[in-house]
Amino acid sequence: MSQSSRLTRFLDLPDGIAAGEALARAGESLESHREAALKVIDTAIGELATAGSQAPHDVLARLSDSIGGLAGMFRLEALGQAAKRLGDIVRLFEERGAADPDLIGLHIAALRALRVQTDPHGAAELLKGLEQIAARVAQRAG
Amino acid sequence: MADPAAESDLTFNFNEASVLIVDENAGFMDVTTLMLSSFGFRKLHRCQSLGESHAFSQDVEADLILVDPFPRTEEGLALIRDLRQRQQPADPPRVVIVLTGHTPRDLIQQARAVGADYVVAKPFSPSTLLDRILWSSAPATARARGGENPGGAGLGPPAVDPLREAARALLQ
After folding, report:
1. Is the pLDDT of residue B99 over 90?
2. Is residue A82 a contact partner of residue A130, using CB atoms and an 8 Å limit?
3. Which of A1, A2, A3, A6 should one mutate to test binding to chain B, selecting the residue with the greatest count of B CBs within 10 A?
4. Which fold has domain B4-170?
5. d(CA B116, CA B77)
6. B13-65 pLDDT, tens per residue?
7. Is A64 among the domain residues?
8. Max Cα-Cα span within chain B
9. Residue B130: how many CB atoms within 10 A of its CB?
10. Which residues contact A118 (CB under 8 A, 6 or more apart)?
11. Above 70 in pLDDT, residue B122?
12. Both ends of chain B: CA-CA distance in Å?
């Protein structure tokens, strides 16, 4: 990288703002957007449920990425984690030319449950249950 | 936990800086746009199609480019490569940040190889995004005083996810 970038000239200007002020604005702005973001998440979960466990992998990956990215931004960590895992699993299936509709269906059901789960302990238990089921499936597969 | 961006003593005015955001996920692009607006960026150009991003990038003289290469990774990386190739040696470089929900090591390596300054994993906080932008904005001397490249070091080996490992075992 050279001495400066095209953004360097925007630093240390007399009418500049400090990072703390910008972050406070961003926090308020995101909070005001929360309901709209939750609607996007709900729409994506609905599309996932409609598409079903045998939907093309690119559709599953796109929707799980959409849910995972937004959920993590709006303090829905368990939902975000489960969505990210679904995306990872789908990509692994895609890479290996494999499929397991039951495992995918289970994740879709978990996403729907996690969206309405308000108890963090319950959400953690659900995530743990998902892990155990996947581990059992893996064990059965040898 | 320390908030590196909030602790920065830099001030900035990005009103006249031009930004190109390329993201096929409209919901996420809205969130990124909100964050950038809060940081003071006003000239925001949104492109919701990787397929159209090459033409778009030629029309927009962006100072900062934020791109999610998913789902057409090759097109996303080609966009960055093209931007870097068009860069005049005497001009200060644009800042290019990859924002993506999927960060396998090979994507991170490829993104760096074609000229991305950072790869930032979705979801990210406003502080993380601002920190990466400010670090990229600062002259090299100030960066050296401020320590390591936060993005370069920030995406270390991915945490082991038991479920992912189980799925991997399933597919052996």
Report:
1. yes
2. yes
3. A6
4. Rossmann fold (3.40.50)
5. 9
6. 999 999 999 999 999 999 999 999 999 999 999 999 888 888 878 878 899 99
7. yes
8. 53
9. 25
10. none
11. yes
12. 39
In a domain? residue A28: no
Residue A97 is predicted with a pLDDT of 84
Does the residue A50 lie in any domain? yes
Each domain of chain B, given as residue ranges in start order, spans 4-170
CB B68 within 8 A of CB B100: yes
Tokens encoding B29: 């692009």
Which pair of tokens denotes residue B164? 């992912």
Containing domain of residue A45, as a range?
Answer: 38-140
- Its pTM stands at 0.85
Cβ contact, residue pair A26, B38, below 8 Å: yes
B25 touches chain A (CB under 8 A): yes
Contacts of A6 by beta carbon, 8 Å cutoff, 6+ apart: B17, B63, B64, B91, B92, B93, B94, B95
Is residue B110 within 8 A of residue B77, CB to CB? The reply is yes
Cross-chain residue pair B34–A40, CB shorter than 8 Å: no
Q: What is the DSSP string of A36-94?
A: HHHHHHHHHHHHHHHH-TTS-HHHHHHHHHHHHHHHHHTT-HHHHHHHHHHHHHHHHHH
**Mean of pLDDT values over A10-26:** 94
How many cross-chain Cβ pairs, A to B, lie less than 8 Å apart? 201
What is the token pair recorded at B89? 């040696």
Q: How many domains in chain A?
A: 1
Q: What secondary structure does DSSP assign to B142-166, as a single string? A: HHHHH-S-HHHHHS-SPPPPHHHHH
In a domain, A78, yes or no: yes
- Both structure tokens of A53: 């466990």
Percentage of chain B lying above the pLDDT 70 cut: 76
Contact between B138 and A10 under an 8 Å Cβ cutoff? The reply is no
Cα gap A121→A118, rounded to integer Å: 9
